[in-house]
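Support case: flavin-adenine dinucleotide complex. Customer-provided input:
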Amino acid sequence: MQEYYNMGHAVNMEGSFNSEVVIIGGGLSGLTAAALLARAGKAVSPFE
Ligand SMILES: Cc1cc2nc3c(=O)[nH]c(=O)nc-3n(C[C@H](O)[C@H](O)[C@H](O)COP(=O)(O)OP(=O)(O)OC[C@H]3O[C@@H](n4cnc5c(N)ncnc54)[C@H](O)[C@@H]3O)c2cc1C
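Agent response - structure generated as follows:
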């Protein structure tokens, strides 16, 4: 089973994943929001 890692959280693309915030789009705004939320302790999964 292949796993992807985003901001320290494992994402299983075959099934479910654990995340408090999903960000669609890895541009400047999305990655900035993801970094700030991760620093604030949220489990963030950006999708590009
Ligand atoms: C030619 C050009 C030159 C520029 N030069 C400058 C500059 O010198 N200085 C400056 O400050 N700004 C510049 N800008 C503007 C700057 O690029 C944008 O303001 C900035 O990138 C906007 O960031 P964003 O995160 O809102 O959008 P984007 O950077 O566009 O990010 C959006 C992301 O969402 C992704 N996405 C879209 N749809 C989906 C989907 N359905 N699912 C998943 N992902 C998706 C896209 O692939 C993209 O990665 C320039 C823009 C252009 C086009």
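The CA atoms of residues 37 and 44 lie 7 Å apart.

Case will auto-close in a few days if no follow-up is received.
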